[in-house]
Fold:
Amino acid sequence: MQIRELFVSAFRSLVSNKRRSILTMIGIIIGIASVITILALGDGARVAMLKNLQASDSGQQSTEINFAASGDSKISGFSDDDLNRIRENNQVNKVSVQSDDHGILSADGSVNGKNINPIVYLTSRANDDHLISGQGITKNDSLVNNPVALVSQSLAKRGYRSNRNALNSGIEINGTTYTIIGIISDDATRGSYNNYDVVVPRQVFQSNNADVSANTLKLTFVTGANVSEETKKIAEQLNSSGSQHNAGSYEFFDMAAMLKGVSAVIKGITYFIVAVAGISLFIAGIGVMNMMYIAVSERTQEIGIRMAVGASQQQILWQFLIEAVMLTLSGGMIGYLSGLGIAMGVSVFLPFTATVSLSTFLLAFGTSTAVGLVFGILPAKTASNKNLIDILR
Amino acid sequence: MISLSAISKSYRQGNDNYQVLHNINLMIKSGEFVAIMGPSGSGKSTLINIIGFLDQNFDGNYAFNDVVVSELNRKQHAQLRNQSVGFVFQNFKLITNQSVGENVGLPLLYAGMKRRDIVARVNEVLAQVGLPDSYHKLPKNLSGGQQQRVAIARSIVTKPNFLVADEPTGALDSATSAEIIALFKDLNSHGTTVIMVTHDEQVARQTNRLIKILDGRIQSDEEVNHANT
Structure:
């Protein structure tokens, strides 16, 4: 008998008993669908997290070392000597000292004698974002260390009552006086959520306020470096011989370790739920077995007829085995699709998208085939071992 | 073609050994039309199951066209059943949820033929047994006589060496029986060997050779004299 015929006849006997086949499949569908949903969401969460926390597109990762002064004093934690020493490490691609990630920090100051605590944005380029009146900071201002500033409308009003009065007046930030050359709107933001009140050239601010600005060191590593290990080494080195190791401590937040930890937790949860779904698959498999036993005893006559016209034992075995596998496999594929559907639907309400991977497809395919084989082999064996004479009597 | 020598068979029933066949010796040549008669329990069905390769558990020697049947494994046995013998049963034994055509084509599927070739051959055989254009009918929509014709069509579809019919008219009225016997006679006249079990004297008289069995032994084996009937 041709293999195609085995599939055709298996398919037809499943179709001829639609209701029973579908009821049997539901168990498989639920099992596979829940496994796929959980895996797709878990994978999605992991991928999204890795993407968020990893650095550049080229796969370079970066870490930050913070200097925390022990007292209230504002000292720069990183001297040029420190930087040069770190640059000798060939795992490190780039070292830069920065105020913080976005060039935004809070500062003390006064405007026309009134104390203020403005959020300051340090720009290293020309900047006229959100400008209402006056002019923006030019590249030249940065180059020649021109102490100029853009201030928000509310600060300008507070100090000088009107925008016009404020222009060309002074504002003092961290002890340095800047000339107000432009007024920006109150809702000036950098990125999506970093509000700021004042813009000053980074060069000017840093040369006058090294103590405030220079407490974060950003390290970018070459691709493939063991980031957390290297950062830890550098931090230890700084703590023992850094320029300010007596005045405070150098700390780093080990992003990679946290990343590993969180993804381990997500993986653990995923596997746990998959194990629970596995139990449902097991129960569904027993359902398949039950149905196949019923089918075998119901179709004893048919088995006898097939054997009498020349079906071998293997052919009878394969017929029932293929029937079982076809049942679980179609259940598995329906389950896979509905699992993906559920995962996609749920991920609309979540901050990440579910990922479809070939491995989950293969998992669904393999699991449902395996369930069919495991739970179909005994009924199929029963069918093929029936005694022809007894059946036909 | 068929050569049985010293065939014996016994069943175990509890502690007793119940012997169904005692030392049967039988030769059947190609082209014969044989009837086997005997009361129930005489062992005629057992004998015919052995002849038709359904039963492999017996003592003695069965040679079919120089093939020693008892030496074949189960797979070869199935293959022999598929290619060399056609069965007709008393209760037709059609698969009820498959169409007439599929029932008839079943042996060809197991012989490994392609579906397209099968359909052509099945239609040819259905026409031969007097049921043209019934490929897509379901067996339950046919009368008993028609169902038996389908079964006969199935038995001859592989062009087997011989047909084995176990009480083919047992479930039919006399008029339909006559039609079926006429069909067998027609097949026989075209060269098909037919071995038929019956307990109907009328039916047996239609054949060319009558073997009577009692208690597992051959009582008589004689040519049928058609002049008397």
